[in-house]
Amino acid sequence: MDVKNILDCKIEKLQNNKEIINDIITYLRKTNNPTTDKKMSNKYIRRSGVVYDIDSLYDHYIKFINGILRTIRKHEIDYCFTFGQIKELLRFEPNIKITYDEVNYCFEVRL
Fold first, then answer.
1. What CA–CA distance (Å, rounded) separates 42 from 24?
2. 97/107 Cα distance (integer angstroms)
């Protein structure tokens, strides 16, 4: 199975195959594009002149990722749910430890 083709796969489909999950995490680490930024921001998003009165879904996503970063930098454990979120976290903290929680279908992340 090609890792690139299953990155968007729902984690529930992979729950019984730790080897594939570990292969995907290894692939994400190898293809990581680290940043010197300390947190995620929407500075790269062009909003085409539209004024938003409420937070967009992407703004909520940014807050979610930044919340995880704050927690793990305090040497506490936090959780994420998708390979995309792991990919984002690796950009800011390439040395995070990632463990798949089979019971809750999520990833435990920590420094």
1. 26
2. 10
Which among 101, 100, 97 is positioned nearest to 110, based on CA atoms? 97
The first and second tokens of residue 16, run together, are 């019984």
* Secondary structure (3-state) at 91: helix
Domain ranges of the chain: 3-110
Write out the chain's pLDDT in tens, 111 residues.
Answer: 455 555 555 555 565 677 788 888 899 999 999 999 999 887 655 555 555 555 677 888 899 999 999 999 999 999 999 888 999 999 999 999 999 888 888 899 999
77: left (phi over 0), alpha (psi -120 to 50) or beta: beta
Q: What is the CA radius of gyration of the chain?
A: 15
Q: Of 79, 84, 70, 77, which Cα lies nearest the Cα of 100?
A: 79
Q: Quick one: CA dihedral 68, 16, 32, 111, positive or negative?
A: positive
